[in-house]
Write a structure and sequence with these properties.
The chain is mostly helical. It is about 45% helix and about 10% strand. A hairpin with a 2-residue loop joins strand 1 and strand 2. Belongs to the transglycosylase Slt family. This is LysM domain-containing protein.
């Protein structure tokens, strides 16, 4: 809408400018003394500007991300490009896999890309979670790494990511994203004279491993850039994977890939809280499903926020701003009245759809939490868990 209004305003200005004239081409031909005159519209520079504005304005999160890419035009040595091309072929051979991962990125991509851009970093870095976790904030490796950015426990601790029985900052998308970008910038500046590709290698394998490999490459007369290094196999493939998926996203049609529509603005709002709140309470107060809040707050391990561990609750961006202000008030008494019981006793005439609506829950969550095989056969007196715990 903003794009349309801006373009319309430009057009209207030309229409109301007393000094503006439209250019026409008049063709006159004489025929038995009569003149046949026709006018053909000739676009001026102003009209060209109108259409350029329509084209250049970012339309979605992918357009914004592409505009911040910085590595697409860099020519690589042939052997390095071959490593990237190998992963391009791998990804393009499974377009359904790319579709699934990018769909999973929908709540997060616009915000992460915005954080990367605000720091002046290459937009390609916003795609690291594609390589690390397939954009799954709950992802855990067999070695103990967790979250979108796959922080190991020790690394997360060193970066100040809180971990306890109620909260894991590695799973908190906002907190872990800030930590990951800080870490990449810090390593690049401290060890690699700002070289982010070397910092990416250190992110994956550790700075000690990369530094040793760099010294070895330099002793052989090489510059010691990422593409010169002999590293563990996973790290050798790390940057090629990232460049490959960025290449595909830069021109998805060329690779037969379909990307989901993602709005250019973040899909969530942040609420700073000074008092504990459960997702069930917030769900009732905000009139948002509990499952939607849980999806946006994967770091809350037991379904509640304790300000001693975390102070920010993410909520869908469409939530009414007045309700958000009410939720964020430190003396808010609505939370107590919004308290949700942990179980529901089925009454005669109850059905699962009505129970789910009563507590702002997803019906499928109730089915899963209670191992219900026949939703239509609820029995009076039956107790249903409302939290899965």
């Amino acid at each position: 809408m903003g794009l349309f209004l801006a373009a319309a305003a430009s057009s209207q200005a030309s229409a109301t400018d007393p000094n503006h004239t439209y250019t026409t081409v008049n063709d006159a031909t004489a025929n038995n003394g009569s003149v046949n005159s026709t006018s053909r519209f000739q676009p001026t520079a102003l009209h060209h500007h109108f259409w350029e504005a329509l084209v250049l304005e970012p339309q979605d999160a992918w357009s914004s991300l592409r505009s911040s890419f910085q590595w697409q035009e860099k020519n690589l040595p042939a052997d390095a490009q071959a490593r990237v091309d190998e992963w391009i072929e791998y990804y393009r051979s499974s377009p359904q896999n790319i579709a699934a991962i990018t769909e999973r990125a929908t709540p997060w991509l616009a915000w992460i890309a915005q954080q990367v851009s605000d720091r002046g970093l290459p937009g390609e870095l916003a795609l690291i979670p594609f390589v690390e976790s397939s954009f799954d904030p709950h992802a855990r490796s067999h070695l103990g790494a967790a979250g979108l950015w796959q922080f190991m426990p020790g690394t997360g601790d060193a970066l100040g990511l809180v971990r306890n029985g109620n909260y894991d900052g590695r799973l908190d998308v906002v907190t872990s994203t800030d930590a990951a970008l800080d870490y990449l910038e810090m390593q690049a500046d401290e060890w690699y004279e700002g070289d982010l590709m070397l910092s990416l290698a250190a992110y994956n394998a550790g700075a000690g491993t990369v530094n040793r490999a760099q010294r070895q490459a330099q002793s052989q007369g090489l510059k010691g850039q990422y593409w010169d290094l002999s590293l563990p196999q996973e790290t050798m493939q790390y940057v090629p994977k990232l460049k490959a998926i960025a290449t595909i996203i830069n021109d998805p049609e060329a690779y037969g890939v379909s990307l989901p529509d993602i709005h250019p603005d973040p899909a969530f709002a942040k609420v700073q809280l000074e008092q504990p709140v459960s997702l069930a309470q917030a769900s009732q107060l905000l009139d948002v499903s509990q499952s939607a809040l849980a999806e946006l707050n994967p770091g809350l391990l037991n379904g509640s926020l304790d300000p001693s561990s975390a102070q920010t609750l993410l909520v869908p961006e469409e939530v009414d701003t007045q309700v958000l202000a009410q939720l964020s008030q430190s003396d808010n008494t609505s939370l107590a009245s919004a308290s949700t019981p942990s179980v529901h006793r089925v009454e005669s005439g109850d059905n699962l759809s009505a129970i789910a609506a009563q507590y702002n829950l997803d019906q499928q969550d109730l089915i899963r939490w209670n191992a219900i095989e026949r939703p239509e056969a609820l029995q009076p007196g039956q107790l249903l868990s409302l939290s899965g715990q």
